[in-house]
Amino acid sequence: MTGRLAVMGGGAFALVGLTIALGLGLPPTAEQGEYARLIAVHPPIAWVAYVAFGVMALASLLYLAPATRHPRWDRIAAASAELGVVFTALMLVTGSIWGRPTWGVWWTWDARLTISALMLALLAGYGALRRMTPEPERRARVCAVAALAAVVVVPVNHYAVTWWRTLHQGRSLAQVDPGSDVDGSYVGVMLLGFVAMTLVYAWLLAVRVRVEEAEDARSADLVADAIAERRREGALAGQ
Amino acid sequence: MSYVYAGYGVTIAALGGYAAWLVRRLRKAR
Questions:
Q1: ipTM field
Q2: By C-alpha distance, which of B4, B7, B10 is closest to A35?
């Protein structure tokens, strides 16, 4: 890893650490007591899960468009989908940890929660599809179409708390409205969390894309070696 | 408060663990 990339990663993780430290210092709230402090991590993680889904779909679109078709977009889509699995799973776990003391349950089949679980299933399905299709160009095409079909779930999940009666609270970003009764320190820590988590995502994506590039180059080398080997065998057999 | 610590702890562990695993994968792939 280059020095600059390592510094970027260190900075992004330090900012997450700062968000958590500030989160621990938030005052207890009237309704939720200390549990509201989970606002420092859960909404930012959920935001990044959406971003990961969106980047996967955008990169897939750029791959499918003839004018911009390049294997780089397919690698970015694959990398973002894997990050999406990590952040969506973490969103479900931190949400569950917040739900237990405030709602009394770890899980309920509420619209927001169910669609979030569907997001995880779709990302896992995308990952499975990549492994099932060995030929690189066909894999990129098929997965790009699947990613574009799957991304519809993101706006539906975002507005799920408005469209249906859910146990989950309203949209977190609606709290930024000056008319909101949420304490300013809570909004500040949440927004810092959004910035910190987005930077962590950007760094992880940069590293994950490099892994994809290195693995692709390695498998291309293996194929080239195998072809050269067969040719040598053929030449020997022909003598 | 234990739920807050659990939420923060699982976040740090998951992101830190995943980042470490990715860096290892990158070194191995090169």
A1: 0.95
A2: B4
